[in-house]
Structures are given as C-alpha cells and as structure tokens.
Amino acid sequence: MIDSLWGALESGLLYAFMALGVYITFRILDFPDLTVDGSFTTGAAIAAVMISNGYSPILATLSGFGGGLVAGVCTGLLHTKGKINGLMSGILMMIALYSINMRIMSKPNISIYDMDSIFVSIQPLIIVPIIAIIVLVLLNRFLYSDIGLALRATGDNERMIRSFGANTDLTKIVGISLSNGLVALSGALIAQQSSFADINGGVGMIVIGLASVIIGEAVFGARNVIHHTISVVLGSIIYRIVVALALRVEWLEASDMKLITAIIVIIALVLPSTRRVIKQKKMAKKRSAEILHVGQKKTMGGGV
Amino acid sequence: MLQLNHVAKLFNPATPDEKIALFDIQLHMKPGDFVTVIGSNGAGKSTLMNIISGVMKPDTGNVIIDNEDITHLPEYRRSQWIGRVFQDPMAGTAPRMTIEENLAMAYARGKQRGLSLGVKASKRTLFREHLSRLGIGLEERLHAKVGMLSGGERQALSLLMATFTNPQILLLDEHTAALDPARAELITRLTESIVREMNLTTLMVTHNMEQAIRLGNRLIMMDGGRIILDIDEERKKDLTVERLLGEFEQISGHKLSDDRLVLG
C-alpha cells in the first residue's frame, strides 16, 4: 500500500510536466490542444531510440523535449497562419505524429530495460522532485517576463494585447510549442521510468492532463500563476493516487481508468456552471422577496 | 502628423449587401490637434478608427503618420505610434491579470518584448505615480485583478494605459458611451487633462453633441462614409447644438439619426 503511494507520488511528478503543458494551452491560451496525445509519444520515442543507441540519457531527454517543441510549432502554424480551427489543428497534428512517431521508433514498441537512464544512477524520488522544482521555477519566471505577460494576455484579451504591439500569432505559437515541449519531456521521462516506449503510449493523455489541472484547481485553488502551476503539479499527484487506489478495488479493471478520468473531467466542467445557475436563482428569489416585502410595507403605510 | 489620403473602404464588395463604409476620405491632422467626430449610425466613424489603427486595411488610399506611409503595416506594428481606448470597458484591459501586469504590458508598447521581468520595483514606483494622478485610489491596488474593477475604473485604467508611453496619435472610440453619467464625466475630465498635459494628437468619436463641441479644437461630422462638415477652432467657439443639427440637416438633406445620440 505504502509502496504504491510512493510510486503514485513519483509518476504523479513525472506526469506533472504533461499537466503543466496542458495548463499552458487549456488555461492560459484557452486553446484545447489535442497534439498532446501525439507529442507525449514523440518525447518517449525519441528518448527510447536514443538511449537504445547508446546516447546519454540526459541528451536523450532534452531531445525528447525538443521534439515536442517542434510538434507544437507545427500545430501553432496550422492554427495561426493556416487559420485552421484550434481543435482541428490539434487533431491533424496528432494523426500526423502517429506516423512520425512510428518512423522514429521503426517498430511499435521499444524496450530499454537494463539500459542506462537518468534514474539508474540517482534514486527517482530524489531526482524527480529536483527536476519538478527546476521546471516550475523556470516556467514561472517565463510567465512573469514581458513575453510571458503578452502570452497570458493573448488568452485573456487578444484585441487588447495586439493594440499594445504584441504579435499574437507569435505568442500563440510560442505557448503551444512550450506546452508540447513539456508534454514530450514528460513522455521522455515516463519512458525511462517504465523502461519502454509504446506507439500508443500517449492515447488519452489530454484528458489525464485536463483532469490533473481541474483536480489541482479544485483542491488547492488558483490565486495567481505561481499558485496555479503548483496546484497543477499537486493535482497530477492526486490523480495518480486516485488511480493507485482505484486499481486496488476488486471489481474495477485497469482499463476502466480512462472512463473514470473522463467522468472526473465531465463533472468538473459541468459542476461550476450548474452551481452558478442555482446560486443566481436563489439570489434572485431572495432579492425579489426583499423588494416585495419593503414595497408591501410602504403601500400599507400609505393606504391606512 | 496624421494624414488620410483618398481612403475608401467597401464592405461585402460585389454582393447584394455591398456597403460604402468610407468614400474618398481626406483628413489631415496637425500635431496637437484634438478632433471630435460625430455622425449618424453607419456614417463610418468606427471604420475610420479601424483604418487608422490597422484593424482594417483601406481598399484604396493611404494612411500616413509622421511622414511615414503605414498603410500596409499590421496593427501590432503600428501600435508603437497609436494609443486606443475602446467603447467597451472590458476591451482595453486583461481581466485575469493584475493592475500592475496590465500597466507593464502597456509600458512595453513599442519596445522589443524580452525575457526580463515584466514588473520590477522601479516600474512599480512609476506605475503608482501615474495611477495616483487618476485620483481614484488604484495606486493602492496594484495586485488586484482588473476583472474586479468597476467599468469606470477599468476605463480610467485603459485611458492611462493608452497614453502613458506618449503615443503620436490617441484614438478614443466613444470611450465614455458605456458608462453612467457621473463616471462618464470623470473619464471626460481625465481625458481632457491628459490630452492637454501631454499635447497628444487626438481623434475622438462621441455621441454626445455637447461634449463634441466643448472638447477639442476641431469638429468633423460624418455621414454615409464621407466627411460632410469640418469646423475649425475659430468657428467652433460660438457653435451650439441647435446650430450644429441645423447645419447637418442642410448639408445631408436628412435629420441626424442616432438612437444613442445625446444632445447634452
């Protein structure tokens, strides 16, 4: 039990980079980017192929990150310069990446069991939090820079930031690229942790990323960007703990996880708007009762 | 300073819905000119603003700022010369970002945006100083999200953001129309003092006839995509709302029709 919780903490932190990538597109740019399902595998594929060919694990990991950056640039170009709808450009890149990933791996599954990885020389539970903190610090420093502010404003009020001289096509491309870089970094690290890369490894990643972002926000809040990014990382860990616990339930199967994830996201998307409607109705009822009450008193006073 | 030469713009060209938005517009503004623009619905006032700021490209003619032809520059590259305040108080600021972050983005106008921190201690002092001049206490709320501000406060902030990097041209697109009278008056007063202090070349569209006469040193009236009346400083001094309406009817042959028109 304790073992599986430590394992959940470790993979939660590794998948957190993917969740941070989804946070950039989904929350900052307001752009649901399905490229994620492809670019996660791209990161895993590049890292696994390079490691099995004897390259250093660090170089392999960074190359995986680079592969994701390039994939993101392509999606960004399709969306901004090609004027293709956001969802559509993500789907197109996701499909294209399946073939590209197959070319990179040249077979559907690569094992790097017993080979060098960044987890071989150092304990995963030491190195992974260190990488997570470095990424969090760099990401936040970027989001508070002049470019970062322009990137955030692009998702918040595009017309306004354009009138202050930002090229919003460029900020979108930078954001989508960075997002997929982080997703691919996550893929590269997961491949090394599990000692293999699979062509279908990225399927459903976008929903897992969304679930992590939403769980993090719901549990830990999101006052500002620093707070928000930390919440996303913690959300990813909670998601993995939920998965670990669900796998111990007898009548649940491992393949049910995708359904459970989808349900979590659906609840999180539906709940806030229904809650708002109910709250507004209550408020309106209360206010009109108040006004009626006051009005009745007045007429009575005047009538008598 | 600002020149529009023979500018024309069609909407939906060669379709049954074809509409002449601007027809052979000639407009020259001298440095420091404060021009107010009035006109009926669909006269082309907003299109004029969009052509100057680069949101739309003219079909023919050119736009010149400071002897430089900017007709084909995209909006984000023109913005180094042009400050703009929109009618919608939501349009000029980013609601999920803080007051100081919004100001930092306005401060970066015309500069290369890099990786240095957007809000620094030195900038914060500058922002406080500028905000305190608005006189509505925003300098105490640098970390507040702009979405929490009222419409009037947001519009005051928009006005500050549009002007504090000293643009060559200031475009005001009915920027008091969505506010209640008291707040509209505050924003009008702020506009007047900022424009005078910084000696900004300003083009202001308004529905308020009295405001159009009171503010600025020149008044133009538009109808059907043309500038039909151009009143200079001398003649503007003894202009009244009645006389202005009379002139409009005489030239255009119909009454000034505008559902939002305020006579003042």
Automatic annotation (TrEMBL), chain A:
Q: Does the keyword Transmembrane helix apply?
A: yes
Keyword check for Transferase = no
Q: Which InterPro entries match?
A: ABC_transp_permease (IPR001851)
Coarsely, its chief localization is membrane
CDD domains the record matches: TM_PBP1_branched-chain-AA_like
**So where does this one cross the membrane?**
12-29, 58-79, 86-106, 118-139, 170-191, 203-222, 229-247, 259-278
Instruction: Give any Gene Ontology cellular component.
Output: plasma membrane
Where it sits in the cell: the answer is: Cell membrane
What are the UniProt keywords, alphabetically? Answer: Cell membrane, Membrane, Transmembrane, Transmembrane helix
How does it sit in the bilayer?
Multi-pass membrane protein
- Gene Ontology MF annotations: transmembrane transporter activity
Q: Which Pfam families match?
A: BPD_transp_2 (PF02653)
What's this protein's name? Answer: ABC transporter permease
UniProtKB/TrEMBL annotation, chain B:
Keyword presence, Ligase: no
Q: Does the keyword Cell membrane apply?
A: yes
The record's section on SMART domains has: AAA
Give UniProt keywords alphabetically. Answer: ATP-binding, Cell membrane, Membrane, Nucleotide-binding, Transport
List the InterPro entries hit by this protein, alphabetically: AAA+_ATPase (IPR003593), ABC_transporter-like_ATP-bd (IPR003439), ABC_transporter-like_CS (IPR017871), ABC_transporter_ATP-bind (IPR050166), P-loop_NTPase (IPR027417)
Primary site of residence: membrane
- SUPFAM superfamilies (alphabetical): P-loop containing nucleoside triphosphate hydrolases
Single annotated GO MF: ATP hydrolysis activity
Which Gene Ontology cellular component terms are annotated? Answer: plasma membrane
Residue stretches making up the ABC transporter domain = 2-249
Name recorded for this polypeptide: ABC transporter ATP-binding protein
Which species expresses this protein natively?
Paenibacillus antarcticus
